[in-house]
Amino acid sequence: MASSSGASKVCFNSTCNQALELPRRGWLCRTGDFADLCDRCGSDFEDGKFCDTYHLNASGWRCCESCGKQIHCGCIVSFHMFILLDAGGIECLKCAKTEYILTPNPTWPSASHFLHGPAERINDISAKSWRSIAGSGPVPWRQGPNLFSAFKGHPELQVTSCSLGQSTRIDPSERFVNSWRPQEMTGNKALASRMHYDGQNNLFNDVSYQSFFHANAIPLSSLPATFVPHCQKTETGNASGIHVKRLCIPPSIGKQCSNNNGPGPSVEKQAHIPKAQGETQASHQLLPRYRPQSIDQEIQRLYGGSNTTITPLFEKVLSASDAGKIGRLVLPKKCAETYLPSISEPEGYPLVIKDLKGKDWVLQYRFWPNNNSRMYVLEGVTPYIQSMQLQAGDTVTFGRLEPEGKLVMGFRKASLAYPSDKSHELTNTRIFAHEESLKDGNAFKSRKSDGALSEVDKISIRAKRKKGGNMNGKSLKHKEEEICQLSVTLEQVQGLLQPPLANTCMVVLIDGVEFEAFQEAPIIRIPKAFSTENVGSLCSPKVEPTPEHQEHMLPMIDHENFESLKTMESVDPLADLAVHDGKASRQDCHKPGCMQLPNGTNHKSTCTCNVCLALNRPTPPPMMMHHDPEQVGTSVQNPSRSMYADIICYTQMGNSNKNHKTGPARSFENDPSRENISDSTFKSQNIDLNMQPEREEESYSVSDAMGIMSLVQESTQRYIKQQKLSVNGITYGAHKNHGL
DNA sequence: ACGTAGCATGGGC
DNA sequence: CGCCCATGCTACG
Question: Which PROSITE patterns does this chain map to (predicted)?
């Protein structure tokens, strides 16, 4: 262990051991502490002569491949002074800097960040094999092999994070991570690992390295050049054939990127992620509908305050198939080939992707041969889709978390979007609160934010056509208007609802959970936080919403740009179209013959699902969770069919999870909120509908889910009180039976 | 009978 | 016209 500062310490140099009065900071130890050195040793270290002076007789010296300078590679002291070349050998930092424009090694990770145990056998990999992993060609960048979770063959190493290659930046403040090399392809799986020395002749494998990255938030830009996108390969020949020596990037790209990674990025920076030139180019090569639009805003908000930024990569509007229970998300080929690792085998590899909450999801990234081409799919997305309550028409966004470089997956509800994002063709399905309409208590007015049919609409119409349906004589324009919707999360809705005035309540017990069913639709409160009137207060220091608050605010609604709030009966028109037509997939039905829509409606009279059985009626009334009588005044209700569907889902978990097949996707989240839920105001909960009783550590039980909802509701009320919002707020009457 | 995996098909761009 | 991709189809467990 490195010594901590203190007069009683002695010099960390074992050959010196001089008592320290004013210790000088030496190298960074694995503990994260710096070695305390005496003045002389400290000077030697700072001069880069420490190993030359004290370790001359030690083993582990190697020569820089470029300049021939000898470096004590087997020593932690010199750890930051060299890089491991992909082709073998080392290069001193000076040469590396010249060629890579790289910076020294990062902070040494704490020993606790390493996985202990036998290091995996290191195998060399041919340049060909490696290139098959790293990919080649004019792609923005390629992910490093550690993107691939190695857990399949190494269950003990399952907790991995994926790191993505990214543009190297020219930023002297960044540090360089030692080089790495891919591991041998084992079977069909690329168990590629970066290896690095710990300075003590130990090699750490990929997983350790990922922990290393994760723990230290090392800019991925500091990755060896083989990770670097927009790379221009420099190949050097040798006796065994061509191998990749290194990849270089145009400095201009690095410069651009460097703007994006300064310490403590400003809010502006977070909100406007500058892209590397090549990425921008690649992005423009994508079809418009796949171009990333707003993941930055969304995630920046969630990751705000940290040094983390997001580089949007691509996005996709979920089709009915994508959002169905098959659990396969078809990836646009171009996007997959551009932004995801190249795969040579159809079975592909598991990818670890973080969601917006930092939860890791392992999805199988693979392809199907198709007409001499490929169809790229992400398998096992159902838990994620369900957890995020995504439906057809919603948009899944992919981005890269920087500086960690992890692949992140966000989403955007089709019904809610950023007003600032008007340029995107999806915007015409977006909802903006129309303050005046709310104030007046008028029914919501639908107003398209732009003229063109949205991609969602197009897809929905396409889906409808494909299914042989018609538009029921409605014009597209009419359909557009129908598509206007308000879809909010369960928690959000919970916080906005009050019992209906005619409070005829029937308490229904479903799977041990009490629900209140009302004959009349509940009343929706409009928190002032969503009106322009309160915009200032929302953003004012006085009532600055915490990130947790913001998480559960109606997402995507930019309070600076409220224009209108559109609503229609249909909660998810695309899902309606896609599933309502009945043929989307039989797997979309939770029970045979029961066409449960994502919005919870349309159960057949013969439906035998729990909810229908419990209520003994084909169309259940609006329900709300049963609350403590003391909370009636601030109770929340379920106003929407969407929420009702949620409850159905939650309710059914108790039965369904028993037989639920474990999908490829798994969450590795150790959700601290499980312990601190009572303390976490507005702590967002990803309720994994794929939960299984035998995997309690990874998922919530039904009661947990309900408890969470209650807690969220309480938190909502607390938040509203904090915001000095009227509990009654502005209400508006619901029409029909669905509350909206 | 049902769920799933993989391939085939065909509409749309 | 060729490719992409949504989803239909079917063999299989």
Answer: B3
Of A57, A85, A101, which closes a domain?
A57
Handedness of CA A666, A667, A668, A674 (dihedral sign): negative
CATH number, domain of A299, equals: 2.40.330.10
Helix (H, G, I), strand (E, B) or coil at A585: coil
Q: Which of A373, A396, A412 is the last residue of a domain?
A: A412
Cα(A9)–Cα(A3) distance, integer angstroms = 7
Residue-number span of the structural domain to which A680 is assigned: 469-550+564-732
Chain A residues 267-296, Cβ below 7 A from strand B: 287
pLDDT digits (tens, 9 = 90+) for A379-405: 888 888 888 888 888 888 888 877 777
Same domain assignment for residues A123 and A232: yes
- How many CB atoms lie under 10 A from the CB of residue A466? 12
Determine, yes or no, domain membership for A461. no
Decide: CB of A592 under 7 A of nucleic strand B: yes
A587 is near strand C: CB distance < 7 Å: no
A334 touches strand C (CB under 7 A): yes
Is pLDDT of A82 > 70? yes
The nucleotide whose C1' lies nearest the CA of A379 is B5
CA of A68 to C1' of C7 (A): 60
What is the rounded (10 degree) CA torsion for A574, A578, A582, A583? Answer: 180
Which residue is the nearest neighbor of B10, CA to C1'?
Answer: A466
How far does Cα A141 stand from its chain's mean position? 19
Q: Residues A709-737: pLDDT tens digits?
A: 444 444 444 443 444 333 333 322 223 23
Using CA atoms of A426, A427, A430, A436 in order, give the dihedral in degrees to the nearest 10: -170
Distance CA A208, CA A109 (A): 10
- Interatomic separation, CA of residue A42 and C1' of nucleotide B7, rounded (Å): 66
- 3-state SS of A95-111 is HHHHHHCCCCCCCCCCH
Let me know whether A586 and A727 are in one domain.
yes
Angstrom distances, CA of residue A716 to CA of A29, A149, A495, A708: 45, 38, 5, 12
> Is strand C within 7 Å of residue A319 (CB)?
yes
Sign for the CA dihedral angle at A320, A321, A326, A331 comes to: negative
- Per-residue tokens: A514: 């009490």
Strand C: which bases are under 7 Å from protein Cβ? Answer: 3-8
- With a threshold of 0.90, does the pTM exceed it? no
A479 and A608 in a single domain? The answer is: yes
CA of A376: nearest nucleotide by C1' is: C5
Which own/partner contact pairs does A435-440 have at CB distance under 8 Å and 24+ positions apart? A435/A531, A435/A532, A435/A533, A435/A562, A437/A564, A437/A565, A438/A526, A438/A531, A438/A565, A438/A730, A438/A732, A439/A531, A439/A730
For chain A, counts of helices (H) and of strands (E) = 23, 25
A469 CA from C12 C1′ (Å): 31
SS3 at position A157:
helix
Checking each nucleotide's C1' against the CA of A346, the nearest proves to be B6
Q: Give how far Cα A534 sits from Cα of A200, A418, A496, A529, Å.
A: 59, 18, 16, 5
Which residues are A620's β-sheet partners? none
From the list A695, A315, A369, A723, the residue with the least C-alpha distance to A533 is A723
Query: Residue A479 above 60 pLDDT?
Result: no
Q: Specify the higher pLDDT residue, A259 or A468.
A: A468
Query: Are residues A159 and A28 located together in one domain of the fold?
Result: no
- The amino acid that residue A462 corresponds to is R
**Is the CB atom of residue A466 positioned under 7 angstroms from any atom of strand C?**
yes
In a domain, A221, yes or no: yes
